[in-house]
Amino acid sequence: xxxxxxxxxxxxxxxxxxxxxxxxxxxxxxxxxxxxxxxxxxxxxxxxxxxxxxxxxxxxxxxxxxxxxxxxxxxxxxxxxxxxxxxxxxxxxxxxxxxxxxxxxxxxxxxxxxxxxxxxxxxxxxxxxxxxxxxxxxxxxxxxxxxxxxxxxxxxxxxxxxxxxxxxxxxxxxxxxxxxxxxxxxxxxxxxxxxxxxxxxxxxxxxxxxxxxxxxxxxxxxxxxxxxxxxxxxxxxxxxxxxxxxxxxxxxxxxxxxxxxxxxxxxxxxxxxxxxxxxxxxxxxxxxxxxxxxxxxxxxxxxxxxxxxxxxxxxxxxxxxxxxxxxxxxxxxxxxxxxxxxxxxxxxxxxxxxxxxxxxxxxxxxxxxxxxxxxxxxxxxxxxxxxxxxxx
Amino acid sequence: xxxxxxxxxxxxxxxxxxxxxxxxxxxxxxxxxxxxxxxxxxxxxxxxxxxxxxxxxxxxxxxxxxxxxxxxxxxxxxxxxxxxxxxxxxxxxxxxxxxxxxxxxxxxxxxxxxxxxxxxxxxxxxxxxxxxxxxxxxxxxxxxxxxxxxxxxxxxxxxxxxxxxxxxxxxxxxxxxxxxxxxxxxxxxxxxxxxxxxxxxxxxxxxxxxxxxxxxxxxxxxxxxxxxxxxxxxxxxxxxxxxxxxxxxxxxxxxxxxxxxxxxxxxxxxxxxxxxxxxxxxxxxxxxxxxxxxxxxxxxxxxxxxxxxxxxxxxxxxxxxxxxxxxxxxxxxxxx
Lengths: 392, 336
Ligand SMILES: Cc1ncc(C[n+]2csc(CCOP(=O)(O)OP(=O)(O)O)c2C)c(N)n1
Ligand SMILES: [Mg+2]
What we know:
CATH superfamily of the largest domain in chain A: Thiamin diphosphate (ThDP)-binding fold, Pyr/PP domains
Shape of chain A: globular
CATH topology of the largest domain in chain B: Rossmann fold
CATH superfamily of the largest domain in chain B: Thiamin diphosphate (ThDP)-binding fold, Pyr/PP domains
CATH topology of the largest domain in chain A: Rossmann fold
Order of helices and strands of chain B: EHEHEHEHHEHEHEEEEHEEHEHEHH
Shape of chain B: globular
Bound molecules: thiamine diphosphate, magnesium ion
Strand order of the largest sheet of chain A: 1-2-3-7-6
Oligomer: heterodimer
């Protein structure tokens, strides 16, 4: 039940060396497990949560990150070539998305934003389904229930409430899965996000608020949204928080595991601020040179999440030619399939616009549909009926 | 006269208002250094400072609610909503506060707020970037609602909207932002056509075709095409959606006896419904046929690959004109 006194009983969050009391940290120092140079540094509180990550799994995280960067680059290229209408690059945010998404169980449920294409990939969404909406072939590319990730939210922050409500449902069902909301630094200003934090705290719902602070909301710097570290705001809602290096895949994974574990075991919501950087434009329609300094980009390039993990692998002697070849081959194959799948995507049919407005027949709309099909039929070639020219 | 784009014309009108009245303040997301995602506020922050051209936190209810507070304090806020589909978080502040304040306080507190909304489709955008929400606001008493269709009106009416002591929603047809037109930047506002007046943009005798915003151009093109077939269409640009200028509409319909209304917004409860019902009440004995609406369908705005089917185009408008004229059309033979 999501009553407002749930969770007040001091339920243990479980996990190695942690109790609900000791790990209810608030913001604080940036947690880092891999330095920008690729050195593994120890952290007594977070290390236990990634102790089990084997060499092989480290290689798999590396592969994931390389593959989604490649998907991102391919999609950007497809947009430039006119195959996609728009694309919001995630370049620079690979560790945040992979580290967090790989900490989830299949039956957890994700509520992402438009930029969380790496998260969607990890949930098992087919890359060509990821680009479907950006090509204009659908409003959303997948069925949320087959992959346990909702469709990408464009209304900033709205999905945080959805995740909270979903978590309230999990609570009511007595299940132990967790809902995860992904959103940006800019989103934290929206009323919806603040209301989500209130609800989650009141009902102690099993939800994780995963905020990717990529430092920008289109042209607005994060300092316009928050006067203090974003993670520190959570305390005001009574929600524990962590501030992690979002370009460090292990730190992100550890933090997400802590939060997930707490939620799963009745410990309620957690807020994670994953500090990263949007290395590309806001979308392919944006020109960041109008509002940000090139030096800033350079500074962040030195903290690149993929080269960081690559250096760590190298230091550990894991960066074999075999691994590099396999990863490159996988990235190539995924990109090739994405391109082919995009270009060959079936075209939607005109009458599709009338489908699924309601779940049962609706006579005024049925009449409009009938009239429009008569209208189309009055043309020899239906495509002519709505030529770009005609509608302009 | 200077030739300029639609976007530039609004920019120029905003600049004039900022120059003429120190109480004018622009607020919105990304309107400063970026100049807005459509560059409508380009250069204004640089010239007028960050206290007059304000990049706000990402929160529409916040923008609108603080605009109410600024208006309370005697300012004249001009708020930019980045895209039509993002106005809804501000809906409560607009409907419950902006619209009702003057009434609630018996005129003591004025809300001279201008709400700029790039609206409409046709630019291949993702969801929430192509909507036409004007009817929600024309339905709300206390608000004035206008939509501009050409650079000159854009320039003039943004200043009239800002000068209005009532709140004004100012709908900008984003697919026309790059269209160019002659603009007289020296135009005296008091001599300009009132913001509440519609304008006959093409004179005709057979049928009255009413449009606003993005579809005025389409309607004019339709009139040209119809002229080739010997049909004389009178095109009216509504300009003001609330209040409607019935005098201009009645004059035209009394002359033509036939009425077609077109808009991108869905049909049910739309501007077309209001125009058709009111003109039927006012000009019943002059009408030779039932008014015809050619509008977006009653569906959520569809994905961009199919948006041209949703948007009334020239051919669909002409099909409606044929129906009003009793000529063969796609619905010939159907009752009602
Ligand atoms: C309610 C709403 N207002 C405005 C927008 C326009 N918009 C799209 S993305 C964006 C910035 C979002 O920034 P952030 O939350 O930091 O996410 P990021 O894009 O950096 O991933 C804005 C203002 C929107 N999509 N929804
Ligand atoms: Mg951001």
